[in-house]
């Protein structure tokens, strides 16, 4: 090779736009779904929001429905783990203690995953993905109702309120956080978890006549 010849430079490895991996695209999609509504949001809208082309998004996900499924899994997976763990009998830990634990930890999960939980609470079963998410929510309600019934059978809770109703009220109180809780607001997650468990369980506790 002559001194005037130069070797052809190796091609640079193509990389995606910085910051736009699948988790970043999912966060943007959840925000857009919450602001505009899932049905009213197109992949073109998401591409415009991110400043990307649609093919660039399809490099990371296959469809808008897949994004919805990932978002709903983000809302449900950790909560499912919390309820599953609380449903297991443990030596020296009664149902009442496990019920208090699941309510407290549910607050922590909601705060950590507030955007995706907000989206979850808005689904109405308009697709297979939404129907599957609603089925998982019903499973959570059933498990929590069973735990309430166990705590009542132990004599720790009043037994004149149906367990399924108590389950709905407890999760309803936790879920209401999506409407008003702000991470930069006056109340930190620990304070909120303490308040909800105190309000809920002081009212549910069985008092001797």
Largest sheet: none
Q: How many β strands by DSSP? A: 0
Provide the low-confidence segments as ranges: 1-18
Percent of residues in beta strands: under 5%
CATH top level assignment of the largest domain: Mainly Alpha
Radius of gyration over all CA atoms, rounded: 23 Å
CATH topology of the largest domain: Tetracycline Repressor, domain 2
Please name the CATH architecture of the largest domain.
Orthogonal Bundle
The helix count comes to: 10
User: Overall pLDDT, averaged?
Assistant: 87
* Structural class estimated from helices and strands: mainly alpha
Q: Would you identify the CATH H-level superfamily of the largest domain?
A: Tetracycline Repressor, domain 2
What best-fitting shape do the alpha-carbon axes yield?
A: elongated
Q: Determine the N-to-C terminus distance.
A: 101 Å
- What portion of residues is helical? 55-70%
Tell me the domain tally.
2
Q: Strand-and-helix sequence, N→C?
A: HHHHHHHHHH
Domain HTH tetR-type: 19-79
Keywords: DNA-binding, Transcription, Transcription regulation
Protein name: TetR/AcrR family transcriptional regulator
DNA-binding region: 42-61
Task: Please summarize what this structure is.
With 209 residues, the protein is an all-alpha fold. It has ten helices and no strands.
Write up what this structure looks like.
With 209 residues, this protein is mostly helical. It has 2 domains: 18-62, Orthogonal Bundle (Arc Repressor Mutant, subunit A); 72-204, Orthogonal Bundle (Tetracycline Repressor, domain 2). Helices cover 66% and strands 0% of the residues. It starts with 21 loop residues before the first helix and ends in a 5-residue tail after the last helix. This is TetR/AcrR family transcriptional regulator. Residues 42-61 bind DNA. Residues 19-79 form the HTH tetR-type domain. Keywords: DNA-binding, Transcription, Transcription regulation.
